Amino acid sequence: MATNIGMMDGAYFVGRSEILAWINSTLQLHLNKVEEACSGAVHCQLMDAAHPGIVPMHKVNFDAKNEYEMIQNYKVLQDVFNKLKITKHIEVSKLVKGRPLDNLEFMQWMKRYCDSINGCTNYNALERREACKGGKEASKRAAQSQSSAKGTTASQRAHSSHNANARRNDVPPSGNSTNHAVKASRPSSSGGPSPPAYAEEITELKLSVDSLEKERDFYFGKLRDIEILCQTPEIQHLSVVGAIQKILYATDDDATVVAQAQAMLSAPSKEADPSSPIAEPLSPIAEVSDEKASSENQKRKTINNFDVDAAAMATLSPRQRVSDASDVHCSGSPLMTC
Prior knowledge:
Elements: H1 16-27, H2 41-50, H3 67-83, H4 92-95, H5 100-116, H6 125-129, H7 135-169, H8 175-185, H9 196-230, H10 239-248, H11 256-266, H12 284-315, H13 318-330
């Protein structure tokens, strides 16, 4: 059951014409625009077609014109969602404004949901709509619109066939009159209403532009979140953060930017950054240990010299020892006098 689908799902690429044809055939209405269903009554009846009997149709108002009346319809729809445990969020504040893109997206989701449960079959829309407020009037307006559309189509066909017969029977007297008729048959580019085909194309282009702008804002927000994360003081000195910022701040579409970022990751950091573990100064413990080692080496040299002197004294004769003692006396020792 499609309760939550992603924005890139195929359901959101269904065209406006297909959505309108599905609504009109299911509910026997005659909507010309998707935003005409912004009151919420159409959504409620579509849920009634998918789950017969679960929607209190007597609370639905097809004649809702003001926003507070439309909000009541959406409250009924939200209660139905809660009963069916559907977690789809209804953006009521946007839907009641009648914006084409918001109403189209929500109706695309409605179609996907009804198709996923194989609902909306063998549904008597006219009978169920009679219990709603303004339901009979909505059915009458739909019937009148359908009859007028059929009459217009028949008159257009008759008029086109009449013109074709007239063109076959009439023979132009000269080439100038032919050119004049061709010029008259061309639509005026300076004024007058645009043909319906152009109006539909303009609407399709506007919807496409709105969709592209929404997608652009979505991905720009993601890039902005990454930029804020890279500016965190705890990680901004890391090489991987620098590589990411290199790609984010690239001003042109250069293929070497990715290669430069990869080079930043592979190359060792040589900056004298106090926070970097490579540039940390020598610890005091290491300095003390070096001083202790040098003092011990000095002591070993002194002991070795003392042992050598003692061995030399042992090998000297008594006369040489007295001579050495006299030398010490004469050198100014306080223990002996000359």
